[in-house]
Amino acid sequence: xxxxxxxxxxxxxxxxxxxxxxxxxxxxxxxxxxxxxxxxxxxxxxxxxxxxxxxxxxxxxxxxxxxxxxxxxxxxxxxxxxxxxxxxxxxxxxxxxxxxxxxxxxxxxxxxxxxxxxxxxxxxxxxxxxxxxxxxxxxxxxxxxxxxxxxxxxxxxxxxxxxxxxxxxxxxxxxxxxxxxxxxxxxxxxxxxxxxxxxxxxxxxxxxxxxxxxxxxxxxxxxxxxxxxxxxxxxxxxxxxxxxxxxxxxxxxxxxxxxxxxxxxxxxxxxxxxx
Length: 275
Description:
This protein is of the alpha/beta class. The protein has a single domain (7-246), classed as 3-Layer(aba) Sandwich (Rossmann fold), CATH 3.40.50.720. It has 11 helices and 7 strands. It has a 7-stranded parallel β-sheet, sandwiched between helices. It is globular, with a radius of gyration of 18 Å. The mean pLDDT is 93.
């Protein structure tokens, strides 16, 4: 995919990976709609980027945890990105995510619902309102941010592992079902990235699990991830793994799942204790 002149949308754009992706795509010549549930971060980002290229970035406040929020985001982005004869939304990057939830017995239903709505259903709802135009044009690009946890699971948060695995499966299903009709799909599965989610976690358990990632010395800056992502999209690679060791871990898991599960239980015991 060519970024120059492309119409792109990035959710979860107020910080971290989303902010870095928006800046990178804009630097490559794309027009960008930046979206988040809060106005302040994306408003400042759009204002900054528009100083270098006027009217090239639009900030749209949207709650992607609801179908209506996704519908309105797609409509607003399509209107802005279709101005002056442009082609509309060429690339949609469903980057927004939450890391809430802990164990099965301690996670409230509301946190399960939030995790599914943001980490999975937001992707489905966005694709639902994008698909007709893309299939009619015979082209379109859907990207999502899942996680290495979607391939390998994560100790400390069952909802996070489950929903990120579902996000990977949804991206695979889009590619399988519509790839021969012009839809391109990529799925970003990073390990440790220096974002608020890693530094703080949305729960104490997620924060403790994040300590394991930081101690392993594999934490990347969001800007490094964005560079890796843009190259992957330009080359239309499906699975985007900025941490190469994730591919090795996935191969080990596939080769001997029982051994891998035993290893994960040992890691869990080291991090959280045996209680």
